[in-house]
Design brief:
single chain; 71 residues; 4 strands; two-stranded antiparallel ribbon; alpha+beta; two-stranded antiparallel sheet
Length: 71
């Protein structure tokens, strides 16, 4: 098994909220570009955590520019 030899401990409620905030911030960034970018595959498995607990939105392989998002 790569990484941890034992599963990491569960995240606290505060840590979960930080991860949610980080993911929402990433989506906001994508949605406010011109043209707007849609991720199209947001799931818990596509949010990665670094050693400090920061969340990063991953797997943008299905992301596409939204048609008609210029207004």
């Amino acid at each position: 098994m790569l990484g941890f030899e034992t599963p990491p401990p569960p995240l606290s409620s505060a840590a979960r909220l930080r991860v949610l905030r980080d993911a929402a911030s990433a989506l906001h960034y994508l949605h406010t570009r011109s043209p707007m970018i849609l991720h199209r595959d947001v799931s818990a498995g596509n949010i990665l955590l670094d050693e400090r607990g920061n969340g990063y939105l991953a797997d943008v392989g299905l992301a596409r520019a939204a048609e008609g998002s210029g207004s």
